[in-house]
């Protein structure tokens, strides 16, 4: 599926006025392609992901998923689209301390009402895909930072999404582990035909991207991939 943000403007209340976080932003994410979003702190990158994830409704513009505008949907419909079509790997989406890596994934399916057997099989497959088959029974404190990040990526794929939204996937990792996570996101994007949008502060990551969008003061411009 293609995600297309079209002329999106988002403002937040700011004292007596409004702060423009996204200023007529347009962005295309195509299946099998990795779009990197870069820009200074406070430029609007997280806001962009939140709009794409349908967690925030923009003031104007469209969020098109295969041509359907998600902005017009009601809350229940948006929740369904998010659950069925969108994978979210945000920094704030922490792992639950008491659950094993496998359970971090199956709990998602459980909440969505899926039968445990199918969910367990898919979760194991995903942990295998991110290189953690042997660690399926470990809890977060028994995993390295890079392994925990892999679990969050696998969890983001649990609903077999078409669109994957990733916020700063390597910020807590050293450069070697960060590079491995980038390789993983690149590979999964290609193999699973995901339309991936990834916010990153690390310019080394741009070599992995098919498209690079720079956001400055809420305005987006396309950069040539590195
Ligand atoms: N809930 C909010 N209410 C008011 N202003 C907000 C809110 N969230 C973000 N902002 C402001 O909107 C602007 C864009 O913020 P955003 O978090 O999207 O930037 P960012 O590029 O992700 O920054 P960083 O790289 O530091 O995470 C900033 O000026 C920020 O202060």
TrEMBL record:
Keyword terms:
ATP-binding, Nucleotide-binding, Transport
- One GO CC term, this protein: plasma membrane
PROSITE patterns in alphabetical order:
ABC_TRANSPORTER_1 (PS00211), ABC_TRANSPORTER_2 (PS50893)
Start and end of every ABC transporter domain? 3-226
Leader sequence segment: none
Spell out the Gene3D superfamilies in the cross-references.
Answer: P-loop containing nucleotide triphosphate hydrolases
Q: Does the keyword Nucleotide-binding apply?
A: yes
**Which GO molecular function terms does the record list?**
ATP binding; ATP hydrolysis activity; transmembrane transporter activity
Task: Quote the protein name from its UniProt record.
Answer: Putative ABC transporter ATP-binding protein/MT1014
């Amino acid at each position: 599926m293609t995600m297309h943000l079209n002329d999106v403007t988002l403002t937040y209340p700011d004292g007596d006025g409004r702060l423009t976080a996204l200023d007529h932003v347009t962005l295309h994410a195509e299946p099998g392609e990795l779009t990197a979003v870069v820009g200074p702190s406070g430029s609007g990158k997280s806001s962009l992901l939140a709009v794409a994830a349908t967690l925030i409704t923009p003031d104007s513009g469209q969020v098109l998923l295969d041509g359907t505008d998600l902005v017009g949907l009601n809350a229940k419909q948006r929740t369904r689209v998010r659950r069925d079509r969108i994978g979210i790997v945000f920094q704030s989406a922490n792992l639950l301390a008491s659950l094993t890596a496998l359970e971090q994934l199956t709990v998602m399916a459980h909440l969505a009402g899926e039968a445990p057997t199918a969910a367990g099989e898919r979760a194991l497959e995903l942990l295998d895909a991110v290189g953690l088959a042997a660690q399926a029974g470990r809890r977060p404190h028994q995993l390295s930072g890079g392994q925990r990040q892999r679990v969050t990526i696998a969890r983001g794929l649990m609903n077999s999404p078409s669109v994957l939204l990733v916020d700063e996937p390597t910020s807590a990792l050293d450069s070697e582990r960060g590079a491995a996570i980038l390789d993983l996101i690149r590979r999964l994007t290609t193999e699973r035909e995901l339309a991936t949008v990834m916010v990153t502060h690390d310019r080394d990551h741009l070599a992995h991207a098919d498209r690079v969008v720079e956001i400055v003061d809420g305005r987006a411009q396309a950069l040539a991939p590195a």
